[in-house]
Amino acid sequence: MNLDRFGRMRLGHDNATAREVFRYIVRKHPTSANAYRSLAEGSYAAGDRPAALEAMAKALASIPEDPALSDTQKKQMTKDVKKNLAEMNSSVNPSK
Predict the structure, then answer these.
(1) Which of 27, 41, 59, 75 has the most C-beta neighbours closer than 10 Å?
(2) Domains and CATH numbers, the chain
(3) 29-51 burial string, b = 16+ CB within 10 Å, else e?
């Protein structure tokens, strides 16, 4: 099992642990847009909306230079991250 999957399995059950796993992944893979997106989701689930918005913005900024993504994946991730940002910006009460 990879760490991202482990962190995602913790979401909804142990959000603090999930967020720490995602922080670790970002430290190990600082050019990964997916790592930042996962951190944003973990932060949001833990109730830290400002950190979630910051991480999602970093995910969006990382997409063009992420060596792990194909052009098709970059287009899809850009669309998904923009949607996630809009949802986080419009949400009043993040789930905990």
Answers:
(1) 59
(2) 3-90 (1.25.40.10)
(3) beebbbbbbbbbbbbbbbebbeb
Q: What is the pTM of this model?
A: 0.88
Structure tokens at 35: 């790592």
Render pLDDT for 67-94 as a digit per residue (tens, 0 to 9).
999 999 999 999 999 999 999 988 765 4
Pair of tokens at residue 85: 């940002």
Closest to 40 measured CA to CA, from 15, 65, 66: 15
CB 32 within 8 A of CB 24: no
